[in-house]
Structure formats: C-alpha cells, structure tokens
Amino acid sequence: QVQLVESGGGLVQAGGSLRLSCAASGRTFSSYAMGWFRQAPGKEREFVATISWSGNTYYADSVKARFTISRDNAKNTVYLQMNSLNPEDTAVYYCAADIGGWGRRRYTEYDYWGQGTQVTVSS
Asked: Would you state the pLDDT for residue 84?
C-alpha cells in the first residue's frame, strides 16, 4: 500500500510559478516510479510528467521546458516545479505511484493516487 498527499497548489497569475509536493508513505519510496497528472473541468485526466526510481524523467509535450519533476528519496517526496504558467494549466493536479514500471502515460497504469491539489492560473 502507498499513501500519497499533495500540497502546494493555489492561485497564480499567468507567467508565474508554483511548486507542488507529494509526500508518500507505506511501500519503500525508492522502489517505484512516480507521476503527475492533471484534470481540468469536463476533461479527461491527462499525463504531465513521470520520474523513475533512479531519476529518469519524461514529460508531456505541453509542459516540456516549463515543468520539472524531481524526487527526494530520503524525504519520500516527489516535486513538480511549474514555471511560465498559463490559464490552460488550470486543473486539479494529482500525483500517482507506478509500482510495476515507469515512463507510462496512461492514468489507468498507475496504482495509487493522491487526493489532488487545485492549481488556478489567472490571465
């Protein structure tokens, strides 16, 4: 079992930055990959970024060069640094644990989920 708790969401103006955190507990954190997804109202949950247990990363094209995913295995925490935010980034952001692999983009392939944190970008 893995428990995930996100934090760091909020309201920011276009062009601004936010840093999301996701604290994990339960299973050994350094043994599985982590991902970030987001879901805007009326839309499907979409992939944002993922990081392997050893730090390899993969991003959605829409956030590449603006967002950075990282992890601190000593703190059992994964981060999402979001820069140059625009209103299209407004969504609930979820972290998720991928126990069986890494680099996967479909939300159905992730095993555990946090409760989500709201990010709102005003124009």
From this structure: 98
Token pair, residue 73, equals 């295995």
Q: Is 27 helix (H, G, I), strand (E, B) or coil?
A: coil
> Does position 100 have pLDDT exceeding 90, yes or no?
no
Judge whether 37 and 93 are in contact, CB under 8 Å.
Answer: yes
CA torsion through residues 15, 17, 18, 19, sign: positive
The CB-side HSE value for 94 (13 A sphere, CA atoms) comes to: 19
Of the CA atoms within 13 Å of residue 96, those in its CB half-sphere come to 28
Pair type for strands 18-26 and 2-7: antiparallel
Measured between alpha carbons, how far is residue 30 from residues 18, 61, 91 in Å?
25, 26, 28
Q: Which helix (H) or strand (E) holds 112?
A: strand 112-113
pLDDT at residue 18, rounded to an integer: 98
- The residues near 28 (Cβ < 8 Å, ≥ 6 apart) are none
